[in-house]
Structure formats: structure tokens, C-alpha cells
Write a structure and sequence with these properties.
Layout: H1 17-22, H2 33-44, E1 61-63, E2 66-68, H3 73-84, E3 86-95, H4 97-103, E4 110-115, E5 131-139, E6 143-148, E7 152-154, E8 157-159, E9 162-167, H5 168-174, E10 179-186, H6 194-222, H7 226-253, H8 255-258, H9 264-283, H10 292-314, H11 324-339, H12 360-374, H13 391-402
Antiparallel strand pairs: 1-2, 3-10, 4-5, 5-6, 6-9, 7-8
Helix pairs in contact: 2-3, 6-7, 6-10, 7-9, 9-10, 11-12, 11-13
Length: 406
Amino acid sequence: MSHVPNAPDPPTTDPVWTPILTGLRATALDCLQTSFALLADHANGSGSHLALGARFGFATRERDGLVTVEATSDDRAAEAADLLGLWVEGRWMQLDGPQVRQLCGPGQPLYVIADAYDLPWCPYHGHEHMRHSFLVTAATTDEVTVVDAYHNDTAWGAARPGVWRLPTAGFDAALAGGAHTPAVAVHPAPAIDVPAMLAGNADRARRARPEIAAYLDRTAAALGTVAGLHRFVLDVWLLARGRDLHEHWLAAAAPDAAAALAGQGPRWQQLATRSYVALRRAQAGRPAAPELADALGTLVESHLTALESVGADAAPAGAGPAGGDGVRAAVLGALGDTLHLDGSELHSSDVLRELPGFDSFRLVDVIDRVEQRLGVEVPATALSAADLRDVGSLCAMFGAAAGGAR
């Protein structure tokens, strides 16, 4: 049998992590979400990670002169805190292998980000540079256990979820280029008000259309270049996975509503294949297919329409994105998550500035979280001292913004 250069190391099994890997919807996660998903299911049970797909969002950014929807590690950390209760409470930057091993204590899995080019269990090893997350779950003087939930087919072979036990020297060599290790603290998973989330998703879908149109215009203009096509392939892959993850969450949280998204997945897969073929042809000097951006626009529009349909069915008659109960649940949840309190023990008369850990910075965090959960934006004129005095006035402020009852 011929040797394949840089072939991934074979995985092994683990009594704790292999069952968790088996229950993960890894095909709907990107390489930064996977490790948060593992931590969530480890802490709160199988399927907990699906909450990452609850909230629709469409955010673009500049990267290498091109527009993209690729999330940053900070974006993924914020989602994990808001939806899974996994808080990044510190960061260690540019650690080497021995430093990472020193941080790993019994029963304390470490979230690690490193360059997949250097990771011997990844198909990208020795082929392509990209940030990649995994867990270090045990470290001895002789061996390091790595858990990686990434699932993808690559030009250099298949990446599949698994557990790897590496010799200490091999692990240290893999991290010689430096690793980023967030300190992830596990808190109780926030309760998601499903009708409010669905209605908020519909509102966010409506408000995202101008940004999506601008994104598609810029994407289409870049399809004549190899770099533009390479970015397009990645964006289609990311958008398809995000849509799939939302469908999986919807199937678990609101099964009747999930039918609105049925049948979209294969169409996204077809576009992913078409875009990859176009990239390979462009790399060989053949012109790209300019209709790819239109095809992406059609799929995105179908997704937005489905979100709006589901949200309309979820919203109570005459209400905005959330009714009064949904608003109160969102406010109490945000206060509890931000201040590390039990939101169920808060009362309307509780003065905000007297809550443990409360300050103006935490207030901004609370406002951001509630706006995201309800899909509303509080007018600046509403941010008065009277509206920000106690828990009840904060609920009333958001109730007015959401169109619910005070």
C-alpha cells in the first residue's frame, strides 16, 4: 500500500467523548463551532449544541479586500455565551504545546485554536493554512488526548469527528506555531423563548435584506477572479451549514415549523458543488460562471421567506416580535446571564444598580442581548433614567420596543 504524504492519523475511541461525537450534528457546524458544541453537550446533554442554530443573522465583513460572511472567533464565542451558556472569561494567546498541556487539568477540557496546516490528524495537514478548533481533554507526560468534531470532505481526504491520542512530542510539534486557548466557563444554558426567537428571526430576516443585496452585488463582481471564487465557495459552505443547523434546531424546538425549511438542503449542496467546479475551472484558466451569485440569491431568498412565514405563525395576533411574557423572559435571562444570577429570583422592583456586579458596561451587555433575543432595537430616546431604574422599567422599555404590553 502506497504512503500518502501528510495522511491524517487514525482516530481512536473514548468512553466519554465518542458518544458525544456520535450525537453531534457535525455536518452543520463550522470548525470554530464544533468545540463549543462538544462542551455544550458534555455539560448539558446530547442535542444541547443545537441552540447554536436558534438565531438567524446575516453579518458581513471585509477580509483580504473581499466581502464575506465568515465569522470570527469572537463572533462564535459571543454566540456560545448567549445561546449555550459557555462564557469565554479570558484568553491565552500564542501558547506552545507544553503551555497548553500545563493548562489541562483533570475533567477540564481545553478549547484550543491552532493552524490546521500543523495538525497531523487533519486532512489540511501540510496542505492549507486555516484556523481550526479542537479540545484537549487529557495530558500526561507521555500522551495528549485531542477531540475534534470537524466533519468535511476536502481535496486531501475526509475530515471526520474523532478522538486522537498523540505522543507528547508530536502534540508539541503540532503547536509549535502557537495556539489560542480561550478560558471557557460553563454556566447554565439560557432558556430560549421559542415563539419570541422565531418572531425575532422573521424580523431580522426582513431587516437583513439591504445588507444581503449589497453583499450579493459585491460577490458577483468578484466572481471573475480566483480569489473571489474561492471566497464564494467558502461563503456558500458557511451559509449552507448555518441554514442546516437552524433546521435541526427547529426540528427539535418547533417540529411543526420545520416543514417550512424542508427541501432546501439539497439545493444548497448542489450550489456548493457548482461553485467548487467553477473554482477548479477558474484555477485552470477557464472563465467562471457569472450566474452563481444569482443562484445564491435565490437560495437565500427562499430561506428568508421561510423564516418570515415561521415567524408570522409564531407571533401572537397583534403583537410584535415578542409578547409581554417573552419580553420579561428575555430581560431576566439577559440579566441572569450577564451578572451570573438566577434570573427567576429577580423581581420587577429590584433596582438595577443594586444588583451584584451591575454597572454601566453590564447594562450595555444586557441591552445588546435582549435586542438580539427579541429582534428589536430600542430607540436612543427611550434610554432614559426612568426606563433604566429597575427590572420592571427595563421590561416595560423592551415591551414598548417589541410592540407588546407594558
